[in-house]
Amino acid sequence: MPSLEKREMKTSVIIIGLIIFSPYLWGQNTKGTVITASIPITIKWVDNLSGDFSFTNNWSYPEGVYENEYGQLSCDGLCPPEIDAMKDSTGRIYDDSLQAFYKIIDTTHQVHSIRCKAWCYEWAGTDFIEVFRKSEDSVDCFTMTSIATHCSLHLDIIKNICYAAIDLNSIVQGADAKYYCTYGYITIDEKLWKEGIMKAKFSFYFGHNENPKKPIYWKGKIYAKIRTT
Fold first, then answer.
1. Which of 15, 31, 122, 144 could lock 128 by a disulfide, CB 3.0 to 4.6 Å apart?
2. Tens digits of residue pLDDT in 68-107
3. What single DSSP character describes residue 209?
4. Are strands 177-189 and 44-46 parallel, antiparallel or unpaired?
């Protein structure tokens, strides 16, 4: 029959072991619970969403399009290779090539549809969001990426519920990731929604499995036409 002292020591060892290994017993790692799905956010519908939406007065040329020193709209970066023969060594577009050049390069003014702040990997800002109606009760939204911004906010709206997530298409091999919303809110102007325009204000936070103490967030305002697929 073991002594009381030995039994107490054995019990203490078991308790300490449970404390050390409990994260593994409950399917968690030392960084916290792994987030693998977004929580449903109930949409708040209002008759007239107030606030500053003056960003809709701003516009940009498509990425890569800029005004050169000769006052011409040119393209630099990810541009069709055939335009190289239309420019001289200084970058000036030949006069007889201007018409053909602008058939290839889109120089339209693109009106800004989102103003936002965020922290996520490889995010340098965005001014554009696309909103598509998939069915009578379902709308899909996603922000545009760019040369500098490689993560995109996705909003899946089904009736009165919104699911938010961030897709990271990293320039680092093997670093692609998806971050799921853990809490937040979204308010939408119901009258404009029925007229085919998404006017909204939102703030979302996302699970950060790699570093739970560093919050990933995306907040801002949207004013965009709801397109049909």
1. 144
2. 999 999 998 878 999 999 999 999 999 999 999 999 999 9
3. T
4. parallel
CA 124, CA 131: separation in Å to the nearest integer? 21
CA distances from 63 to 93, 105, 113, 129 (A): 19, 11, 15, 14
> Could you report the per-residue pLDDT of 178-197, keeping only the tens digit for each?
999 999 999 999 999 999 99
- Four-residue CA torsion sign, 100, 101, 103, 109: negative
Give the amino acid at 17: G
pLDDT the model gives residue 7: 41
Residues, the chain: 229
Question: What is the pTM assigned to this prediction?
Answer: 0.80
In Å, the largest CA–CA distance within the chain is 104
* Helix/strand/coil (H/E/C) assignment for every residue in 17-59: HHHHHHHHHCCCECCECCCCCCCCEECEEECCCCCCCHHHHCE
What phi and psi values does residue 7 have, to the nearest 5 degrees? Answer: -65, -40
Burial of 90 per CB tally in 10 Å (0-12, 13-18, 19+): exposed
Q: Please check whether residue 227 is in contact with residue 177, taking contact to mean a CB–CB distance below 8 angstroms.
A: no
Which pLDDT score, from 0 to 100, does residue 127 have? 97
CA–CA distance from 153 to each of 147, 174, 199 (Å)?
Answer: 16, 20, 16
